[in-house]
Specification:
It is a single chain. The chain has about 250 residues and is α/β, with parallel strands linked by helices. The protein has 2 domains: about 110 residues, 3-Layer(aba) Sandwich (Rossmann fold); about 120 residues, Rossmann fold. The chain contains 9 helices and 11 strands. It has a 6-stranded mixed beta sheet. It is elongated and about 65 Å long.
């Protein structure tokens, strides 16, 4: 018996570097890997944003939880012809997100803060030291409110504003969908699968996912979860795939 998994679909954009572990896996096990996001992020129009009645310049600080939020915030400001004052303060969940601000601002001249550990609790501790600020939080139409719950507990004055949305990536009606394994990274990806293929039957198709919320979405959809990450043995999706394919190839040789 040969390896039963020959073709995988990873629901992420194709890696920009040849050094990606996915390419190593493809070569190691002789499998074909396609990269195709099941979801995409699109901006709200200026007209849609105005309907929320949020005036960006009413706020003295902005909280960013992702690079995507930074991109959409500054693009929307440009579309609305809003010039952000140099006095604006920026609070970011991680240092990597904070550094990404350099794409839009002169970093060393601005007041930029970030949590040391990358945990939201740590960022809230930093924010609490600037409790007099009026905060704006750019979010997607689908988002978690964990951060807002913590801000409420600290009695922080904030407003969340939807600046972008997550939408399903449409598959063509006549598109071949002949994968032995599908890999997902968000509950939205599972929703998109079922929207694109309402008659989807899993049967022998393996499903892998990253993160507990995605795992829950797989099970809630009545699907079988075959590969899950992160775990103690497999901290990344590629590590989990490597372990699974190694086990499959051993079984195939028996």
């Amino acid at each position: 018996m040969a390896l039963t998994i020959k073709k995988l679909l990873v629901s992420q954009p194709k890696p920009t570097t040849e050094k990606s572990p996915y390419f190593d896996i493809a070569e190691k096990y002789g499998v074909e890997i396609d990269f195709r996001p099941f979801i995409k992020v699109e901006p709200l129009t200026a007209k849609e944003f105005r309907q929320q009645r949020v005036a960006i310049l009413d706020y003295s600080a902005v909280i960013f939880t992702a690079r995507t939020a930074i991109d959409h915030f500054f693009k929307l400001c440009e579309e609305l012809r809003v010039t952000i004052p140099e006095t604006m303060k920026y609070f970011c969940v991680t240092e990597a997100i904070a550094v990404y601000l350099q794409k839009y601002i002169v970093y060393r001249k601005r007041k930029v803060f970030f949590g040391q550990t990358g945990k939201q609790e740590d960022l809230v501790t930093v924010i609490a030291k600037h409790a007099k600020e009026k905060y704006l939080i750019p979010v997607s139409d689908i988002h978690k409110d964990d951060l807002m719950v913590m801000l409420d507990a600290k009695k922080i004055d904030y407003t969340k504003a939807t600046m972008y949305r997550t939408v399903s990536n449409e598959f063509a009606k006549d598109e071949t969908f002949d994968y032995d394994m599908l890999v997902f990274f968000s509950p939205s990806g599972i929703s998109s699968l079922l929207k694109n293929f309402p008659d989807f039957k899993q049967e022998n198709i393996r499903i892998g996912c990253f993160g507990p919320t995605t795992a829950k979405a797989v099970k809630d959809a009545g699907l079988r979860l075959d590969v899950e990450a992160p775990t103690a043995e497999a901290p990344s999706m590629t590590a989990a795939l490597d372990q699974y394919l190694k086990k499959e190839s051993r079984n195939g040789k028996k």
